[in-house]
Design brief:
Radius of gyration: 17 Å
Strand content: 25-35%
Largest sheet: 7 strands, mixed
Number of helices: 7
CATH topology of the largest domain: Fructose-1,6-Bisphosphatase, Chain A, domain 1
Helix content: 25-40%
Number of domains: 2
CATH architecture of the largest domain: 2-Layer Sandwich
Strand order of the largest sheet: 3-4-5-6-7-8-9
Number of strands: 14
Distance between the termini: 44 Å
CATH superfamily of the largest domain: Fructose-1,6-Bisphosphatase, subunit A, domain 1
């Protein structure tokens, strides 16, 4: 698995070089819309093509859960979960916060995760049971022990606004009882930053598996906790996630006080 991880990192960084080069000459006229405010570009599609092709060669017979649908092949054992460009809206507007997210799931369990933040050349990675790393240096979640010492990250939905009233109540509560909230525009980056202690926690709803799979494993391997809004483990496909260090119980208490009411 370690050998495979190193090969995946090489592939992801090569794809990141392509994204970085395209960001310098990006043609906004080539933006497409998959739905309301749901942007996709030729860069997303080409990056995913490169990743799928390379990962197929590294692990023949594996399946894919990929954002742009380059491959819909599934395997009974190994499946890659890919977001080729997490933070597409940032990318298309020239904001330098976007990442590649690649996770490997063995049957129903995450076993490997790589998040590559392209602009800072930061590669976060983990193998289940072997710890988490940033550019091969071990990382741990923050040691802050209470919400009033925490800096949190979140994201805003770009469609499906039916639960925004409850969500804004949660945000309002956290704004008044933490060091602050940040909205980076990339769930993969939010999770990676939580894993290395830049944030104490991250929460968001209406996410897909490819947004969170790699980052969630990295947080867990960095000593953090990951769960859904009910405190359960349906964060991968349940479209809601809380990831944090020791403030997870306080975060859940705030979220559950306002959510679905």
């Amino acid at each position: 698995m370690q050998k495979l991880l190193q090969e995946v990192i090489v592939l992801v960084k090569e794809t990141g070089d392509f994204i970085r080069q395209e960001s310098q000459k990006f043609d906004s006229d080539r933006i497409e819309y998959k739905g309301l405010n749901d942007l996709v570009s030729y860069v997303d599609k080409e990056a995913e093509n490169r990743l799928v092709k390379g990962l197929e060669e590294l692990l023949p017979g594996s399946g894919f859960i990929a954002e742009e649908g380059t491959s819909n092949k599934r395997s009974d054992i190994y499946n890659w979960i890919i977001d080729p460009l997490d933070g597409t809206t940032n990318f298309t507007h020239g904001l330098p916060v976007f990442a590649i997210s690649v996770a490997l799931m063995k049957r129903n369990e995450l076993s490997m995760g790589v998040v590559y933040e392209v602009n800072r050349d930061e590669c976060f990675h983990a193998i289940k049971g072997n710890g988490a790393f940033l550019n091969h240096v071990p990382i741990k979640v923050s040691n802050a022990k209470s919400l009033d010492k925490a800096l949190l990250a979140t994201g805003f939905p770009y469609y499906n606004f039916e639960q925004m009233t409850q969500y804004l109540r949660i945000i309002n509560d956290f704004m008044q009882n933490t060091h602050g909230l940040r909205r980076m525009g990339s769930a993969a980056v939010d999770l990676a930053y939580t894993a290395c202690g830049r944030f104490e926690g991250f929460f968001e709803y209406n996410l897909n598996a490819w947004d969170v799979a790699a980052g969630a494993l990295i947080v867990q391997e960095a000593g953090g906790k990951v769960m859904d809004f009910s405190g359960g483990q349906n964060f991968l496909f349940g479209r809601e996630i809380v990831a944090s260090n020791e403030v997870s119980s306080e975060m859940l208490s705030v979220i559950q006080k306002h959510w679905n009411k």
